[in-house]
Design goal:
Length: 118
């Protein structure tokens, strides 16, 4: 059901819930506790990270690291290695397009998109 997904812990200090998933895009809301870190990783899709509350440092290979605050966003190119850390804590919305194998696996951990990726 829309808006009914619960937060699940992905890493220490990092919880996420599925907002939307279909073949064209995936939207995941993530809570990042103060001091928590998202290790370097990459996706086959383009990602837009929007800060809904708080702030975080978001780094992207080739673009450097920026501190993003409420209302700020950053577009992360496909396959670009990126990472994040939060001093005061943050709530972010990550939108990935299109749905790719790595995002498919993530949303299944969060309880959605229980179908085969075409």
């Amino acid at each position: 059901m829309p808006g009914k997904h619960e937060y699940k812990e992905l890493l220490p200090g990092i919880k996420a819930r599925l907002v939307h998933c279909d073949e064209s895009l995936v939207a995941i809301e993530t809570l990042i506790e103060p001091g928590a870190r998202v290790p370097p990783h990459q996706h086959e899709s383009v990602q837009v990270t929007i800060v809904l509350d708080g702030s975080l440092a978001l780094g992207v290979d080739g673009l450097g690291e920026r501190v993003l605050s409420k209302g700020d966003y950053l577009v992360i190119p496909r396959r670009a290695k990126h990472w994040a850390s939060s001093g005061p804590g943050a709530r972010v919305l990550d939108i990935n397009a299109p749905l790719t194998r790595d995002r498919f696996e993530m949303v299944n951990k969060l309880g959605g998109c229980r179908r085969e990726l075409s």
